[in-house]
Amino acid sequence: MIMTRGQRWFNVCNIVFLGVIGLSMVLPLIHIVAQSFSDAVAINAGDVSLWPVGFTLASYKLILSDPSIWAGFRNSVFFTAAGTLINLLMTSMLAYPLSRAEYLYRKAVLVFVLFTLVFSAPLIPNYLLVKQLGLLDTPWALLLPMAISAYNLFIMRSFFVNIPNELIDSAKIDGCGEFRTFWKIVLPLSKPALATMGIIYAVAHWNRYSEAVFYLSDRTWIPLQVRLREIVFTDQYGQSDVTSELLTLVSPEGVKMAVIVVATLPIMLVYPFLQKHFIQGMLVGSVKS
Predict the structure, then answer these.
(1) Which CATH architecture has domain 67-236?
(2) Closest to 116 in 3D by CA, of 148, 87, 141
(3) What is a single cellular component term in the Gene Ontology annotation (predicted)?
(4) Rounded CA separation 213/148 (Å)
(5) By percentage, how much of the chain surpasses pLDDT 90?
(6) What residue ranges do the domains of the chain occupy?
(7) Burial 125-157 (b: 16+ CB within 10 A, else e)
């Protein structure tokens, strides 16, 4: 296919525009990483741009020597894993019946779900509900209230709608009940959608901050984001002999940059393994047969 002059210019403009957008996102991250590996003198002098100056691991040693960082990391991993599992299970189990025409009252349920998407409850009613359910200061306060996202539910439902009815009917003819059809037929065909929803839910749980501040006063369960916020805004570090020694070698800005890297790295490491399914899942519901 031969492109016209206008098409070539359009492609060039697209490449330049997307390149600028990409650089505007990548360069700040590179700068953050460079500062996290730079020494205090270079950071305070403003000599660090996109490459570490006076390479040092002192900022990371300071953070990782704090036991509360490891406790927050463990809590965040638990909330992310358990919360994502609950989200996927609850969302798919509600989306599947809402996608089948033979189930009664599905339209009424969809209206109620849509209502929650348009009109979300404010903080005080949410807090009172969590309190009345006895979930305050328990990990369930960060898991159960966010079990289903209405937006993700509609995306999952649109994927289930595209599953051929012939497959469902064949499973029923072979003697499969509703639950067996769901587990053995529907879910295996829904891996792209589940991967997409899993990434969205996992990122939301990993970055969970406000709910932890409102619902958790017991520091046993505080996630990593709450602890890192204390470091970034109050410079509160765990007290130890290693910490006292490293405080003289690091810059507060370098420590904050290292905190950002520590909080971002786990999700960035998970994404490449789900990238293929994620890209497929982004097309969910966009093509109708």
Answers:
(1) Orthogonal Bundle (1.10)
(2) 148
(3) plasma membrane
(4) 21
(5) 8
(6) 67-236
(7) eebeebeeeebbebbbbbbebbebbbebbbbbb
